[in-house]
């Protein structure tokens, strides 16, 4: 008896999502969304090449090279090839390697580190070349799926509960994207999502001293790829995985959250095919966790408003950072010396003083020698973070008191990269800036040309091969 090509309950939330993933075509997606997606891909690739030879990236690669035989999948920034699942894991680790990558403003996840590694690692599995339009459509399916799953769990709220949101929402995104690339039918997509969701997890305590924070989006990238591979081979996954009452994805990850409703299952399919979540993918101008960006903006504003006072760091008596719940729980923790680069990039306190001292927050600020500067820690000791329960989103304020009795303040309700978001031109500028000293100009330009010209690409292996050369460590 032939298996059905339809999901178990086509009218249920899971079934509707699976049917859309199966049926959507590139022509259904507005041209503006498609164009933006190409620039998002370029940004993700730039982040990967920057991250490929950071110390924690090399450590992870060497572990797997010691235990695996050579495979068919390129490691970005290396002259090595490895198995598909490990390539997805490690290439994701590179993209997330330095807090430079994208994030979603509604449901926090870093889509490029989930989608690009899984899709590139799929190429050797397929019998025929993957065209640029095929790749772009599959990527967009992932961009649309991940935030919808996240919004069903109240978006950023899950961060306040100690879950690493992207590692929870991400397996669905990866499985959806690869399922589309594999041309799975709606029933197979349901299997893939069911297999992916049972692998979802991520502890936000990774943000302190661990290196595993860099890898935690690699788990959903790898696991979503594995889920789609299993579904492609006929392996049966959890049916109706999002709405199941006992052990269902949304029910389990929302238990005890105190929200009413506990989860918002309608968000899974709200506006599907007409409201484009891709439009809320944001790109970072700073090399730090997104919730720290309004902190940096506050300090930047003060530096522009009162340049003379902000240069007199010795005259500062105290610094107070006031912020809402998400930023406070995610980045408002107290930091102590010595600090790892992970902890530094997650800390509102640390990035604030970094902006004060260096007037920028980019990869070079997180070299080991930069993490232990007396001038930085002297300012950290004068700082405290304060919770404002009334503030939502990215609203923050910085107040500096000086020994001469004066006080200056800066207040933001959003952050650069969100409002205003980076333009396509600024994304190209960021990419070119990141590539300085990492790859040669000729390779840089060819990668840019292929990413922005995906419509005319007949074989994505051309781009993949460019990503496989050896890159340099930007913080060496």
Automatic annotation (TrEMBL):
<dbReference type="InterPro" id="IPR042183">
    <property type="entry name" value="MmgE/PrpD_sf_1"/>
</dbReference>
<dbReference type="Pfam" id="PF03972">
    <property type="entry name" value="MmgE_PrpD_N"/>
</dbReference>
<dbReference type="Pfam" id="PF19305">
    <property type="entry name" value="MmgE_PrpD_C"/>
</dbReference>
<dbReference type="InterPro" id="IPR045336">
    <property type="entry name" value="MmgE_PrpD_N"/>
</dbReference>
<dbReference type="InterPro" id="IPR045337">
    <property type="entry name" value="MmgE_PrpD_C"/>
</dbReference>
<dbReference type="InterPro" id="IPR036148">
    <property type="entry name" value="MmgE/PrpD_sf"/>
</dbReference>
<dbReference type="InterPro" id="IPR005656">
    <property type="entry name" value="MmgE_PrpD"/>
</dbReference>
<dbReference type="GO" id="GO:0016829">
    <property type="term" value="F:lyase activity"/>
</dbReference>
<feature type="domain" description="MmgE/PrpD C-terminal">
    <location>
        <begin position="286"/>
        <end position="452"/>
    </location>
</feature>
<protein>
    <submittedName>
        <fullName>Putative immune-responsive protein</fullName>
    </submittedName>
</protein>
<feature type="domain" description="MmgE/PrpD N-terminal">
    <location>
        <begin position="16"/>
        <end position="259"/>
    </location>
</feature>
<comment type="similarity">
    <text>Belongs to the PrpD family.</text>
</comment>
């Amino acid at each position: 008896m032939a298996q059905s090509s339809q999901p178990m309950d086509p009218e249920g939330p899971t079934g509707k999502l699976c049917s859309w993933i199966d049926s959507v075509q590139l022509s259904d997606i507005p041209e503006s969304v498609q164009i933006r997606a190409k620039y998002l891909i370029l940004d993700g690739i730039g982040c990967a090449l920057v991250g490929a030879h950071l110390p924690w990236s090399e450590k992870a690669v060497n572990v797997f090279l010691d235990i695996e035989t050579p495979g068919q999948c390129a490691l970005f920034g290396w002259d090595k090839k490895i198995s598909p699942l490990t390539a997805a894991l490690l290439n994701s680790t590179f993209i997330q390697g330095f807090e430079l990558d994208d994030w979603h403003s509604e449901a926090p996840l870093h889509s490029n580190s989930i989608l690009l590694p899984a899709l590139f690692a799929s190429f050797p599995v397929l019998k025929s070349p993957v065209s640029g339009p095929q790749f772009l459509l599959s990527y967009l399916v992932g961009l649309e799926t991940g935030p919808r799953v996240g919004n069903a769990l109240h978006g950023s709220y899950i961060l306040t509960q100690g879950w690493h949101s992207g590692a929870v929402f991400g397996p669905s995104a990866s499985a959806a994207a690869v399922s589309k690339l594999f041309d799975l039918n709606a029933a197979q997509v349901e299997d893939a999502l069911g297999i992916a969701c049972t692998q979802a997890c991520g502890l936000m305590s990774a943000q302190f001293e661990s290196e595993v924070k860099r890898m935690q989006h690699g788990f959903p990238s790898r696991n979503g790829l594995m889920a789609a591979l299993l579904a492609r081979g006929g392996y049966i996954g959890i049916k109706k995985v999002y709405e199941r009452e006992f052990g269902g994805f949304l029910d389990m990850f929302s238990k005890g959250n105190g929200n009413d409703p506990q989860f918002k299952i309608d968000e899974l399919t709200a506006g599907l095919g007409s409201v484009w979540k891709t439009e809320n993918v944001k790109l970072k101008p700073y090399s730090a966790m997104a919730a720290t960006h309004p902190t940096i903006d506050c300090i930047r504003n003060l530096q522009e408003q009162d340049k003379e006072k902000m240069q007199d760091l010795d005259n500062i008596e105290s610094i107070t950072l006031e912020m809402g719940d998400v930023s406070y729980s995610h980045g408002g923790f107290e930091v102590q010396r010595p600090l790892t680069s992970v902890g530094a990039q997650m800390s509102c306190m640390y990035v604030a003083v970094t902006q004060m001292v260096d007037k920028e927050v980019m990869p070079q600020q997180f070299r080991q020698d930069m993490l232990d500067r007396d001038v930085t820690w002297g300012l950290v000791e004068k700082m405290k973070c304060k919770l404002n329960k009334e503030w939502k989103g990215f609203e923050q304020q910085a107040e500096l008191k000086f020994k001469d009795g004066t006080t200056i303040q800066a207040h933001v309700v959003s952050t650069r990269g969100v409002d205003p978001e980076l333009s396509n031109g600024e994304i190209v500028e960021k990419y070119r800036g990141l590539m300085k000293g990492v790859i040669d100009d000729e390779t840089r330009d060819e990668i840019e040309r292929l990413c922005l010209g995906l419509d005319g690409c007949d074989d994505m292996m051309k781009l993949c091969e460019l990503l496989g050369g050896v890159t340099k460590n930007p913080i060496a």
